[in-house]
Amino acid sequence: MRKQHSHQRIERGRIADHGPTSQTITTCRPKEHPLNINTPVLVPFPKQIDASDDTVPFPAEGAISVDASVHEHLTARRIDVLIQQLRDELSSVSGSHLHRATHSADASILLTVDEALDDDAYTLSITRNDGYPPVVLTAGGATGLRDGVQTLRQIIRQYGALLPQLQIVDEPSMTIRALSYDVSRGRVPTLDTLEALADVMCLAKYNQLQLYVEHTVALPEFRESWIGHDPLTIEELQAFDMYCADRGIELVPEMATFGHMYELMRTRQFRIYGEMPNDADRPFSFVERMLHHTVSPTAPGSLELVTRRIDEYAALFQSRTFNIGADETFDLGHGRSESAAAEVGVPRLYADFVGALCRHLKERNVQPIMYADIALRHPELLDLIDDDVILANWDYVRHPSENNVRTISRQGFRQMVCPGVQTWNRLLPNLDDAWSNISEMCSYGHRYHAVGMIVTDWGDYGHVNDPAMSVPGLLYAAECSWNSTPGDQATVNQRISALTFGDVTGVAIDELVRAGRLQAFSWADLVQYIELDDQGRPNRDVLFVLGQNEKELHAARARFLHERAELISRFSQCNQRLDDCLQCLATHLHSSRFPARHNALCIDYDLMAMLINGQQLFNSVGAWLLAQYDDGFPAPDITGLADGMEEWYLQFEARWRSIGKEADLARIRDVMQRVTQILRDRKAS
């Protein structure tokens, strides 16, 4: 298994290509992208919209009427949330106030249901018709009402109390539009931050959120694995479950149950259930955490252990769906199950264990979801997996495989296509790859009738990626899952720039795209360079990830840097271009036609400045490290670089604590301290 993948680099814990050896660097030139002011900026864009040049004034003291038919589809609590969302938009943008009207004739906004429409379909009319409310939202059911209100919110956000006259007919092309969010590998969000995430998802019409955990949930029996990691509490999860439900989002539990059991399998109490218990005392490593540890299906009691965890986690949610993960079981057959694997084969070991987990869920009337990577690698597994399991089919490369989606479809399985937001292991998102990956995976999903889409947001190597940087990718996925024929990237970028940054020119999103290309030395590079040192010897797991077999640490690090030399050599140019990007952002983030909303996921100038400055520092560190191993590469001046890294870390730390718990912040701090120590020691010598 290790030989099979030795030429690839593992990032996000998914095996992915190392990526391009060079990047296109273009000069930052602000350009105008004027939007048609008569056509609203909407993400996702409706199926049909007819807008005119006329406007419809909204009264300063407007009213909303909720037809009796709505009460048959929505609880009073959910109706109140929709009304409050509209109130907040109007009050924030125009100062208008919205109250409840007893009769629809007195209303400015009417919400109603027409059961002739599909449940998730809606029409929105904004017109000047005497005797009728100027704004009428008609939906087929609860889902359409929720989504129609989000469209109206986006319109109000842009136009205030002077709305464009229009007609919208809309419904999604893909039934389930989900986000899988990692709350286990570094960051553990506060409840306020999770609620901000749900608010962004609601506005973009997502209807499912999967919270991915490995150990960071405070289940009493498993205290040894989460103590000291600031887990999500039972009370927080239950409160968030209700918050999501009130906004039409199903909160689905997602838990590692086979692979990616690193923290649990390293405990004194539970290591006996792992494939490689003898490795449980190795020093912590970000790289190793992505590879080890896997539950051993041959360990007595391992199935009972995992099913207890499933039951305890599932009990905290209203959802009758559970994602068991079961991806990347790298250790399987290489430890205590080696003899069993030799007898029946690793695929059979895998299928029997996940089959038992899925049957356990179905016996409790819970729909199992599992990742498809192992089954696709061993096609014979598809004949061993029950066909009522939903397969989550992930692929994160720039141009993902259509064949994988086709294969699962032809086998008769329901599937959800899983692209990624392309933010993990980076300070700045790779929006070029994100658009390509998301749009292509969603197109395959539409083509092969996937039941839904799960866009994933992982926290590899400590979750250094700020959650706000995922918002553009989330909006890409919202557009591409809702519409089988989405807009092109440039058009969608303009809409995202307006909705996220409040910048209708589109320049702000252009600069974020450009900044993401200027990574000469990444956080992943920094971690791998540091973790290559295993007490003076090359770390075996880092060597595996890098595809190396060097015997000496100096040689391994030299090769590591030389393989990145082309990118690193552009550090100065990258840093200058990042300065240019920041200057453009300073202008366009502070001059908007309508305001962006400020919450934990707001992308503002201060956040962008902090992240761009961090990338510039990483680029400089990479250049200086390369010079230590290559006499032909001129060493940059590192005066103040160690101080700069420390000052930047303090800003990063403050941002981290403002939106999350302490969690694994100390592990990021450890990497930064080891880097600054190297800088100071080498400078002194």
Looking at this protein, list some descriptive labels.
single chain; 685 residues; alpha/beta; Chitobiase, domain 2; eight-stranded parallel beta sheet; 26 helices; 19 strands; 44% helix; 14% strand; globular
Rg to the nearest angstrom? 26 Å
The largest pleated sheet is described as: 8 strands, parallel
Query: How far is the N terminus from the C terminus?
Result: 43 Å
Task: Report the average pLDDT across residues.
Answer: 91
Would you mind describing this structure in some detail?
There is one protein chain. This protein is α/β, with parallel strands linked by helices and 685 residues long. Among the domains are: 191 residues, no CATH class; 123 residues, Chitobiase/beta-hexosaminidase domain 2-like (Chitobiase, domain 2), CATH 3.30.379. It has 26 helices and 19 strands. Strands 12-11-10-17-16-15-14-13 form an eight-stranded parallel beta sheet. A seven-stranded mixed beta sheet has the order 3-9-7-8-6-4-5. Helix 14 links the parallel strand 16 and strand 17. Helix 10 crosses helix 11, helix 16 packs across helix 17 and helix 25 packs antiparallel against helix 26. The longest helix has 25 residues.
